[in-house]
Amino acid sequence: MPTACPSFDTLKIVRPVVFHPGARDTIREFPPEIRDRLGKALFLLQAGEQPGMPLSRPMPSVAPGVSELRLHSADGQFRTFYFKASAEGILVLHAFVKKTQQTPPSEIQLARKRLKEMQDEN
Q1: At what angle are helices 105-121 and 21-28 packed, to 10 degrees?
Q2: Which domain holds residue 55?
Q3: Would residue 47 count as lying in a domain?
Q4: What DSSP designation does 65 have?
Q5: Fewest C-beta in 10 Å: which of 4, 40, 111, 121?
Q6: Helix (H, G, I), strand (E, B) or coil at 68
Q7: What's the structural domain count of the chain?
Q8: What DSSP state is assigned to residue 118?
Q9: Tens digits of residue pLDDT in 51-73
């Protein structure tokens, strides 16, 4: 008698993740452990889940609807800004290693610029 296969919801929509080239390049330089955890967090977002603190937090200082994924390791604090309200999918705008308590204004400005670039492309 055949064994039962696990059930998979093949009709569930998984939203694409669209990376800004600068964010993608920075993420490639993150330690492997951080890249792995970031990938898992992005998959949760793709599946429609909204992780809360301490993993994700809104960043209205960048723009309404922008949040950051917050990952920590012995190598430092890693941040990735994303925007979920795009028809194109989840936009990953900016990634950086955080070295101060407060997010530097230059990182916020760069994220704003990249969000505008990505929205103007579509």
Answers
A1: 130
A2: 17-121
A3: yes
A4: T
A5: 4
A6: strand
A7: 1
A8: H
A9: 888 999 999 999 999 999 999 99
